[in-house]
């Protein structure tokens, strides 16, 4: 009896070991893995509905979490999968590969006052305490793939496009802050863009790759149904490398949606992360008010551009405002600027938007950009000019409207980060440690 039990145990261990080494299995970092949960990618010729029905019979105790039926991604997300069932899936001829599901999270660091908008329209430091813009993102949809968006007086009626939860209300704050930087009337880059919440993360700021794929499926459906609608998508989130995630993002970008994605906050190579390592997206690193790469920001050849990411003031749940730092905060600056390009040139592809953004970026401005990192800083100075429009016919530009940057003080007061002796010098800010700060 003992010998038989031992043989059964060894057999189970053998199945588990073989599964973990299988050529079709895409593994992730142990600390990110969601136990017994997998993303199953099917061949394009396979009918997803029929396959799901067959899997329910073949794997009766497994949970069907999500199904993916668009051209960009064919597959299913399963939960409560045993090692033996995993082995069966890996041997299934309908399966291209199986990926361990993993946690994704926001790319945020807590921080200090806002200057991000002001930096976009200035060629160099010091800042001029204004944000001048010709376009507002009117007619462009911006998908905020995040923790949801909370109603806010600075946000113009954001809609709930998709949720992996019960609603699109932001219980964490990250998505609302990101949305404000993209399209807030005071704090936003593109003040008339149409904000659409795609909620894929919960109140703890975490989600799963499988849930994110379902949200991306929704974004693709929107582009498929409205091919002439200019669209941008912001992904201030990420996790370890994911072949499935990179594949679907690349396919949707090729369909015409401009993606701005966060490089990550581990001060390491962005190519180790997804979707930062995906092709066809614009991966954003963070810079500070001195044009130095933020100490937390990832770097490397997968980074495409830098944008302001430290001490960014924007909207928060409860009709509040607050400061956050991270590549999460840098990324929506890029998404907002992409919306400006698309208002000026609504027929442009995502690739054409990036070509113009890259041409208009300020080169060589970032100090300590990091090993192998392209040294480009986001700029709005040439949107609507011939330099920024190499493909589309020029569009008549509205009259430029100078607007004071929301957190910069009037000229008679000392600017944020200026030296001070007392708070009265700082224009509703606090003098702390010899410098002006936001309260």
TrEMBL record:
Residue numbers annotated as active site: 146, 174, 328
Catalytic activity from the UniProt record: Hydrolysis of proteins with broad specificity for peptide bonds, and a preference for a large uncharged residue in P1. Hydrolyzes peptide amides
Gene Ontology biological process terms in this record: proteolysis
Family as reported in the entry's similarity comment: Belongs to the peptidase S8 family.
Cleaved signal peptide residues: 1-17
Protein name per the record: subtilisin
Domain of life: Eukaryota
InterPro entries xrefs: PCSK9_ProteinaseK-like, Peptidase_S8/S53_dom, Peptidase_S8/S53_dom_sf, Peptidase_S8_Asp-AS, Peptidase_S8_His-AS, Peptidase_S8_Ser-AS, Peptidase_S8_subtilisin-like, Peptidase_S8_subtilisin-rel
Domain Peptidase S8/S53: 137-367
Keyword Transmembrane applies: no
A GO cellular-component term linked to this record: extracellular space
């Amino acid at each position: 009896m003992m010998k038989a039990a031992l043989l059964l145990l060894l057999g189970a261990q053998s199945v588990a070991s073989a599964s973990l080494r299988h050529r079709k299995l895409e593994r992730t970092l142990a600390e990110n893995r969601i136990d017994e949960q997998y993303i199953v990618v099917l061949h394009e010729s396979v009918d997803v509905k029929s396959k799901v029905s067959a899997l329910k019979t073949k794997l009766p105790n497994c949970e069907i979490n999500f199904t993916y039926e668009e051209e960009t991604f064919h597959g299913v997300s399963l939960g409560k999968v045993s090692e033996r069932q995993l082995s069966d899936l890996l041997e299934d001829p309908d399966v291209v590969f199986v990926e361990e599901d993993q946690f994704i999270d926001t790319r945020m660091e807590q921080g200090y006052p806002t200057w991000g908008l002001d930096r976009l329209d200035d060629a160099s430091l010091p800042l001029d305490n204004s944000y001048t813009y010709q376009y507002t993102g009117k007619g462009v949809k911006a998908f905020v793939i995040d923790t949801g968006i909370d109603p806010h007086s600075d946000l113009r009626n954001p809609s709930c496009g998709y949720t992996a939860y019960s609603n699109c209300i932001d219980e964490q704050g990250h998505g609302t802050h990101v949305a404000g930087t993209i399209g807030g009337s005071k704090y936003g880059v593109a003040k008339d863009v149409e904000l659409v919440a795609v909620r894929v993360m919960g109140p703890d700021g975490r989600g799963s790759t499988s849930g994110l794929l379902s949200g991306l499926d929704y974004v693709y459906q929107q582009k498929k149904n409205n091919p002439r609608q200019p669209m941008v998508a912001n992904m201030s989130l990420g996790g370890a490398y994911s072949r499935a995630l990179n594949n679907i993002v690349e396919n949707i970008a090729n369909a015409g949606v401009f993606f701005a994605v966060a490089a990550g906050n581990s001060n390491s190579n962005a190519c180790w992360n997804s979707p930062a390592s995906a092709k066809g997206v614009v991966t954003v690193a963070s810079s500070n008010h001195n044009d130095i790469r933020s100490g937390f920001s990832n770097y490397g050849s997968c980074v495409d551009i830098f944008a302001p990411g430290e001490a960014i003031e924007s909207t928060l749940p409860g009709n509040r405002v607050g400061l956050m730092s991270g590549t999460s905060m840098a990324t929506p600056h890029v998404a907002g600027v992409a919306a400006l390009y698309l208002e000026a040139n609504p027929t442009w592809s995502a690739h054409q938007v990036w070509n113009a953004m890259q041409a208009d970026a300020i080169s060589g401005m970032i100090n300590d950009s990091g090993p192998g990192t392209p040294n480009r800083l986001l700029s709005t100075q040439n949107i609507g000019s011939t330099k920024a429009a190499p493909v589309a016919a020029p569009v008549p530009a509205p009259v430029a409207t100078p607007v004071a940057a929301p957190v910069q003080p009037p000229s008679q007061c000392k600017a944020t980060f200026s030296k001070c002796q007392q708070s009265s010098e700082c224009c509703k800010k606090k003098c702390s440690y010899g410098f002006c700060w936001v309260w």
